[in-house]
Design goal:
This protein is mostly helical and 123 residues long. The protein has one domain. Helices cover 60% and strands 3% of the residues. A two-stranded parallel sheet has the order 1-2. Helix 3 packs parallel to helix 4. It is globular, with a radius of gyration of 14 Å. The termini are far apart.
């Protein structure tokens, strides 16, 4: 399967999660992709997965839909990883906080961005 196909499948899965107003862990997303694609062995922390999520978020942010990867979270913290917050600051997303911000600040931005994405998926 090509990188483009992998990215499209990732978008389908993550948009489905957003439409159901839920979240998915990096591990569950990697497992779903591995199950759907024979011969794929993505790790939850792989650069490939991170890059795809960043690309999807950049595309949707530029289309005023919010950062789609907000619904992909760490299984322990229940919020996205540091790369998400780094990207939010780079994109100058409204209310973005840096990765070293307090847990409270990160959760506030996470909740705000998640509602924006949920709203965009409901359209």
């Amino acid at each position: 399967m090509s990188e483009k196909d992998l990215k499209e499948l990732t978008r389908e899965i993550v948009e489905s999660v957003a439409r159901s107003r839920g979240v998915i862990t990096y591990t569950a997303l990697a497992n779903e992709l591995n199950d759907a694609l024979e011969g794929t062995d993505l790790e939850p922390s792989s650069d490939t997965l991170k890059e795809m999520l960043m690309e999807l978020s950049e595309e949707d942010h530029h289309d005023k839909k919010g950062m789609l990867s907000v619904v992909v979270v760490n299984k322990n913290t229940k919020i996205p990883g540091p790369g998400f917050f780094y990207l939010a600051c780079r994109l100058r997303a409204v209310g973005a906080v840096p990765a070293h911000a307090s847990k409270t600040q990160k959760k506030k931005f996470f909740n705000s961005e998640r509602q924006k994405v949920y709203g965009a998926q409901g359209d």
